[in-house]
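pasting for ref. prot 1 ->
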Amino acid sequence: MKKFINLNNLTPLNKTVSENILTALTYWLISHINYLLFSTIGLVPMPIWPAAALAIVLSFYKGLKIAPGIALGSILANHLSLGAGLLFSSCIAVMNTIGPAAGAYIMKRKVTRYFRIKSIFDLAVCFSAAIILTPFMTALGGIGSKWMLGLLPLSEVPAAFGKWSWRIRWQHCFSASQCLPGLAGGTNRK
């Protein structure tokens, strides 16, 4: 039986392009399903954003070469699924890409790709990168863009920022509790 998609037979450029297209479509699909689930019960904005966890995991393993896929997925999710304007969706995408990339970069400085953590300090750095820095950056981009584009009055910025960043923090905590035990079984630190 033939494999549906075999990225190993592609040139490096075609592989990177394919991975970014798959990332964009996966980010959008996860976000769209999330929207459909929560909108049926009237809970919009959603209390969790699973695509944020996808973005930090892909950034951790693929680095900056996957950034275009994360950005495009974010634009598709915010514009097509959530109905945000294209300019606002593009602004959100900037920090939805930079935030996970920065968090993943910091985490990679302390652990291997198999997520071997040597000390409590390394654990604290990884926790801070994923649960504090990344949500802060994405919330700053989303709420800051909304305010700068005139879509949110200044008086509502602090509350909106808090809701946005906590939604992503909660999702990262939940995702980490599901993923990290499996990742920790890898080889020793290089």
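and prot 2 ->
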Amino acid sequence: MSTAPPDTAKKPLPKTAIMVAITAATLGVIYGYDQSNIGGAQLYFQQDLGITTQAVESVTAAIVIGEIIGAIMGGWIANKIGRKKSMILVAVGYIAFCLLSAAAWNVTSLWVARVLLGFTIGISLVAVPVFQGGTKFALPVRLRLRVKGAQVEWRLVLLDTAATLREAVLEASASVAEKTGVPLIEGNPEA
């Protein structure tokens, strides 16, 4: 029986992993950046397009509608065309719909551009985390949405978190046991 320590030499990260990490970070920045931009821009596009305050609220909230649809369809799209192609689609879509938002000629075109922009962000919220490394776990949730005029209320209820946490701990423990050679013994706490 060999007692040699496991290979702990640091290996350089593959270029693909570095690009995926940069893409994931960029999409996170984009998500917040868009929200801050629309807040500052609404003062100008309301005057330029001659629209009411209610229309401004609708345009501002339109991205959420797209995000919901994108998040719902994102997994299907990523599975259909692949995660990498989905990320490319998100990047191209984000650029295209930002330009469309900037070139909007009326409230309808701006609203549609914002929904499509939200759609790409929604896809990114589903497609990108798969590449961020680590173990993947789906945490079951119940999401409820209520629209009151121009306001959107969210209610999120976590379901069966104990089972998901148990699965995550067991998988992480098995991974550590495999890497270190120390056996994993599962049991119940002593009384």
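Residues 20 and 81 are 17 Å apart (CA to CA).
The chain has a mean pLDDT of 77.
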